[in-house]
Amino acid sequence: MPAAVDERLGERRLGAQRRVFAWFAREAPLVAIFCVYLLGLLKLIPYVIAQDGWYALLAGREIVDRGLPDKDYMTVFTLGHHWIDQPWAAQLALYGLYAVGGLKLVLLFHTLLVAGAFGLAMYAARKLGASPRSVMIVALLCVFVAPWAWQFRAQALAYPLFVAVLWLLAADSRAPSRRVFLVLPLLVLWGNVHGSVALGAVLVALRGFTYAVGEFRKPERAPRWLSRVGALGVTAALGLFANPYGIDLFSYYLKRPSSPTLGHVNIEWQATTLSPVTALFYALALASIWMLGRSRRRLTGFEGAALVTIVVLGIFASRATVWFPLAAIVLMPRALDGIRSLRKSQRVPVAERLNLIVAAGAVALVVATFVPTAMRPVGWYDSQWSEPGVQAVANAAARDPDSRVFASSRYADWLLWKRPELIGRVAFDTRFGLYSDKQLEALFAYHNRIGNWKPLLNGFSIVVLETDGEQKVVRDLLRENGTRVVFRDDDMTVLVRADPVARTPAS
């Protein structure tokens, strides 16, 4: 190789290294926040899996074994009900990971996914022009806004898609470009991953609306902006319905938010009431609205409308609060930059060497934590679930092949996952969208011990309950002749009933 060429390559490498070092020096606080966030998630791994996580794995396995479902066959209460399994791709992907590396790989992937969405939101804010300090402040405030977003479930696969869609739309609102139509493949993927794609479609439609408002007074450009608005509308529709279930998804998207009974049974569909748990969400939501008014010129019409929309959705349904911290990290730092006192404080020079040390230390700490976590035995990952308990249920069910199992919401999907022979014999699981209003009312009465709730257990000879949370049910059932405890630990109690009364579950 000629010496001149070799010298040029060396200069390029040196230039690339300098750019990397300069980036780390500039972004070190954000790198540190991301690393600390990831460290926290790694420590929480045994606690993030719950009903929805077990259901995602269960549904993925069923898709592999039987194909996409149409009619339910898994639980007694919903046997034969029309079953639209909209997030089939997420379930299939998660089960595929399980088949390759077991629960360990699935939960490590989930941890990186949640942390990755958080990091991507900070990166998007910087690319939209926010200062590192403002991004750092907003990100720190948002860490604990919706900790239930850390839970392992199919929804987590939608987090980075949400951030990417919001980023593209926000960038387009600042400088319209054909790149905005990259949201199309993102929405199509999202539409096969989780039902929250409806939020993505709303954001795309909102961008189309704000663009039309901005261009409305320019009649000479009408053909151009009308076609663009129409294309955004088609993109939103494709995101909603580009799924194997097609137009059947219309009822799927409408049923859950329009069912008041569903909100009684599933707390995630209830309005977000002010409490110690939700106080931070309300505080930051109010702060974001205040900053919109204070620094309205720093945000575009779309960005302000999108943030308000996400705040309103979070108030109307507690499950929607998970989108607010990600949206706030992407959008609010620019508004924060508009506050004069903060803008002055950002003129402090960057301590490059100190920042590099901080960033390198944070990355080293993540590596030092991740490797031992990945080396832990498989039992550590599901240590919060009682293997002897599920064995006791399996033994009781094997003694009577006609027996049926009534399990609490916490344990139903887990039992179906761990013991496939119980499919069709468990009372219900967490797919509350499949239930009739009558069934939802019966489940609400049972969960809250209202009125005559006990008939819901008729026909179920094996009952699996939470030891602490369902003590009243355990006491009432033990008063029956012949009912006995076959297993009990601090979390789970398994009862076998000698006379489960008539086999007439709610219908």
Average pLDDT works out at 87
The fraction of residues in strands falls at: under 5%
Given the structure, what is the number of helices?
20
Radius of gyration: 26 Å
Name the structural class.
mainly alpha
Domains counted in the coordinates: how many?
Answer: 2
* Extended strand count: 4
> Which regions contain 5 or more consecutive residues with pLDDT less than 50?
502-507
Question: Could you give a short account of the major beta sheet?
Answer: 4 strands, mixed
Tell me, briefly, the overall form.
globular
- Helix and strand succession? HHHHHHHHHHHHHHHHHEHHEHEE
Strand order of the largest sheet: 1-2-4-3
Name the helicity range: 55-70%
Care to describe what's here?
This protein folds into two domains: 21-362, no CATH class; 387-496. The chain is built from 20 helices and four strands. The chain has helices spanning 3-43, 51-66, 88-127, 132-142, 159-174, 183-190, 197-215, 222-241, 249-258, 260-265, 279-294, 301-316, 323-337, 340-345, 352-375, 378-381, 387-399, 409-418, 437-448, 471-478, and strands at 405-407, 462-466, 484-488, 492-496. A hairpin with a 3-residue loop joins strand 3 and strand 4 (492-496). Helix 2 (51-66) runs parallel beside helix 18. It starts with a helix and ends in an 11-residue tail after the last strand.
